[in-house]
User: Fold DUF6111 family protein from Limobrevibacterium gyesilva.
Amino acid sequence: MLRFTELGLFLVPFALFVTWRIMGPRTPPRLVWAAAVAVLVMAAGTMWYGLNRRIDRSEAYEPAHLEDGRIVPGHGVPKVPHDPPR
Assistant:
């Protein structure tokens, strides 16, 4: 619930700005629609990128490191199974 409250408080200034822009007499409706479509396309692209670049739950993240003078980027490696405690 707290996350929704924080998200709502974060989005209030943007909603007020959009309302102000829509209510303004010089805002052509085409521009408002074009901006809304652009924001939706950017949000969809961001979600698509995030979902495609995520590491599988069965993998652990190995951070970037130097190997023989070269930088090896961070990547996912299979988790090592461990014996449960007795």
Observations:
- The CA atoms of residues 59 and 78 lie 4 Å apart.
- The radius of gyration is 22 Å.
